[in-house]
């Protein structure tokens, strides 16, 4: 997909990767960029920074009726949605001590929100015979988020859903990509490091932490090639191969790293 003259919607657009995508899509010549976020003021600030092609919307991605309303409003305003970026996500930094409420929130934001947006946007895309779904799933969806059981489980589910959609709808003109970055300089990572969370420290110790703009660069390249897995950190592909070829050795390495960081 080339972004020129496209209409894109981005959830979780008030900061981090979502804000970087909004800026980059506009720079690539998008006709319209809808910046949606629970943080209405943050979404407005990003949209104002992007310029006249951007429109801000407040959105709770866990409320399906709000997602449907956003899709309907965007289609009325611009006639179509070419690219829907289900980018909102949450972490818990908890293991088995995560409460049922933690699990429920992670499931609703990291997985069900992707279901809600796809249900809402897919009919219009299928009617036109084309459309693109970009789901932010995290490297945790193909590896493991040490220190965060709900995040790991739900991001694996998000990758599984994206793959199912790609298999089911590609022959009907729908393209699907799963964006799986590792460490990115976002508020989520900064807060985790400040709190001393194990998962954040593992990410910081494991290699490069990218700027959100670098992730946006990878997204543009991945969309152009219509790749299913978009990996801003190329090493994630190597990690995934090692994990598949030698799961016991892979787990032993992570345990060793965990012991070093959290004796």
CATH superfamily annotation: NAD(P)-binding Rossmann-like Domain
Dominant shape:
globular
**Cα-atom radius of gyration:** 18 Å
- The overall number of domains is 1
Mean model confidence by pLDDT:
94
Given as residue ranges, the uncertain stretches (5+ residues, pLDDT < 50) are none
In which range does the helix fraction lie?
Answer: 55-70%
Q: From the coordinates shown, what is the CATH architecture?
A: 3-Layer(aba) Sandwich
Distance between the termini: 47 Å
**Helix/strand structural class:** alpha/beta
Q: What's the total number of strands?
A: 7
Largest sheet: 7 strands, parallel
Strand order of the largest sheet: 3-2-1-4-5-6-7
Instruction: Indicate the CATH class.
Output: Alpha Beta
Number of helices: 10
What is the chain-wise order of helices and strands?
EHEHEHEHEHEHHHEHH
